[in-house]
């Protein structure tokens, strides 16, 4: 059993042809060179194309409100609230920076893959705006691709950063299998709701596999350490001593239920399935933290592991029994598969000592906090919020009331995001930066991994690792943190969505989700 997106029948739904200017401009690539067959020497064989799988965002002012309606469809969010959040885009020309960042990452991956001997094309496909996953897959299919490898822009494992992308792929593959991926003919807003676009085409069967989460790769660690050290240098230019700076590690908040379902628990191979299990498409064939308190870190501080059990689909043990082998990338010992929060804690536990070493310090005080929390006030999400944390630090305490020294400055590092999309440039560069100014606390924001050469190299390694698994080779994923996720197929009880409630959007933006995923209902990609 693989994480292949199986072809199933889907409703006839349509395109962005009526959208005017191409909403996916700048995100396509030249596909004229897809060969009829991929040479075995290509490190990504047996795949014949790569899909950079992301969240998406508006490209122009008139896209913003339809995008917000689309991203929150069926969740009871009123237009008044959508208009409030949509206004955040106006300071950025009505466009999300995620589009340009994804194009840059695609180009960097394409160049590095070429240097390492791969000829495969890469295109961008999005969950919530053009080009949608179905549009990207149709573009690849029309160029001759049939076996596609998807790389999400979410480094950490959770429902919206991992399993939900598999659902997106399954839905898009089903549309293409039915030849139902063309325009609705009812305008670009209707196409956006249907997550389709373009002219569509005849039925085609595709096989699509997904890479594993990659927060624990050497390149992501190196890129973040380099960026944090540079940010400390910015404060040094303001005569703020490194020893007096507090490091604030930021990631996207998610609902507590999603956190609880983001890792398999003990005995997960025997987990039940049934009517209460969340509905997840079977894409297994090849046919068509404690809320309110920051987690603190200093050099050598270990991160704790957390895991939870939830209902499941057919188990990995059953798949292993039927096929004679475990699903690609799923570790035999699932105790190494840890939750969304524990993944961040594990990365922080190796990142903070390395930052201290690079700065020549014995100790760096650091905390794990969150941004982009959304949804109704009664919904519980991971806390503390970065702004609340900054206010507490300025008052000489943590958000749980424990005393601490007021820092001479703060470095805010969005290590839970791989690129500068709206959660970073608005939530941190605008809101959190203003909070720090109001408090009189010198503030420097570290860069995201972006197209850092080491990070791009690690992404290429992840693609090559997955291709090796697809060829039936024995794969042993490495980890800078010593823990997973290592899976390319979600183990039965991990990456669950948590409890759904009307009006709650359970996706997050660690991608760009991220986390990414990637977004909650009112956050911005």
Radius of gyration computed on alpha carbons:
22 Å
In terms of DSSP E residues, the strand content is 5-15%
Compute the number of helices.
Answer: 14
Helix content: 25-40%
The SS-based structural class is: alpha/beta
Strand order in the largest sheet:
6-7-5-8-9
Mean pLDDT: 79
Task: Give the SSE order as H and E letters.
Answer: EHHHEHEHHEHEHEHHEHEHHEH
Instruction: Give the CA-CA distance, first to last residue.
Output: 33 Å
Low-pLDDT residue spans: 1-25, 267-291, 298-324, 500-525
Quaternary state reads single chain
Number of strands: 9
Biggest pleated sheet: 5 strands, mixed
Spatial shape:
globular
Overview of this protein structure:
By secondary structure, the chain is an alpha/beta fold. It contains 14 helices and nine strands. The strands form two sheets. It has a five-stranded mixed beta sheet, sandwiched between helices. α3 crosses α14, α7 runs antiparallel to α14 and α11 runs parallel beside α13. It is globular, with a radius of gyration of 22 Å. The N terminus and C terminus are likely disordered.
């Amino acid at each position: 059993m693989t994480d292949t997106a199986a072809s199933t029948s889907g409703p006839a739904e349509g395109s962005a042809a009526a959208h005017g200017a191409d909403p996916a401009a700048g995100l396509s690539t030249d596909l004229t060179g897809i060969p009829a067959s991929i040479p075995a020497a290509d490190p990504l064989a047996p795949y014949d194309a790569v899909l950079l799988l992301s969240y998406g965002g508006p490209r122009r002012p008139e896209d913003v409100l339809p995008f917000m309606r689309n991203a929150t469809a069926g969740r009871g969010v009123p237009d008044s609230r959508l208009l409030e959040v949509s206004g955040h885009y106006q300071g950025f020309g009505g466009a999300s920076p995620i589009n340009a960042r994804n194009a840059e990452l695609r180009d960097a991956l394409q160049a590095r893959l070429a240097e390492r001997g791969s000829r495969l094309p890469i295109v961008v496909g999005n969950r919530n705006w053009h080009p949608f996953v179905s549009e990207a897959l149709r573009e690849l299919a029309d160029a001759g691709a049939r076996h596609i490898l998807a790389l999400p822009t979410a480094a950490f494992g959770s429902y919206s950063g991992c399993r939900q992308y598999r659902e997106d792929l399954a839905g898009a593959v089903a549309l293409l299998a039915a030849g139902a991926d063309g325009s609705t003919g009812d305008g670009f807003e209707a196409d956006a709701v249907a997550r389709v676009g373009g002219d569509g085409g005849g039925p085609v069967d595709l096989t699509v596999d997904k890479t594993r989460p990659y927060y624990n790769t050497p390149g992501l660690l190196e890129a973040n350490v380099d960026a944090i050290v540079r940010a400390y240098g910015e404060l040094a230019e303001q005569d703020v001593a490194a020893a007096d700076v507090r490091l604030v590690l930021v990631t996207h908040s998610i609902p507590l239920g999603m956190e609880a379902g983001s890792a398999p628990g003990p005995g997960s191979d025997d987990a039940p399935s049934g009517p209460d299990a969340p509905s997840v498409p079977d894409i297994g064939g090849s046919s068509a933290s404690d809320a309110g308190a920051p987690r603190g870190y200093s050099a050598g501080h270990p991160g704790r592991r957390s895991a939870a059990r939830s209902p499941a689909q057919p188990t990995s043990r059953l798949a292993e029994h039927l096929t004679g082998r475990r699903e690609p990338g799923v570790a035999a010992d699932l105790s190494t598969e840890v939750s969304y929060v524990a993944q961040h804690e594990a990365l922080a536990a190796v990142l903070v000592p390395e930052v201290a070493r690079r700065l020549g310090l014995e100790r760096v005080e650091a905390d794990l906090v969150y941004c982009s929390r959304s949804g109704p006030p009664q919904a519980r999400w991971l806390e503390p919020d970065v702004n609340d944390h900054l206010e507490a630090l300025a008052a000489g305490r943590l958000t749980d009331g424990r005393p601490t020294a007021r820092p001479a400055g703060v470095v805010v590092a969005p290590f839970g995001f791989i690129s500068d999309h709206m959660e970073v440039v608005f939530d941190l560069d605008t809101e959190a930066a203003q909070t720090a100014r109001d408090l009189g606390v010198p503030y420097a924001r570290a860069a995201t991994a972006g197209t850092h050469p080491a990070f791009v190299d690690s992404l290429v390694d992840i693609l090559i690792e997955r291709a090796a698994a697809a060829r039936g080779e024995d794969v042993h994923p490495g980890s800078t943190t010593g823990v997973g996720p290592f899976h390319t197929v979600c183990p039965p009880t991990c990456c669950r969505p948590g409890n759904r409630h009307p009006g709650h959007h359970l996706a997050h933006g660690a991608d760009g989700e991220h986390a990414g995923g990637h977004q909650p209902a009112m956050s911005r990609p």
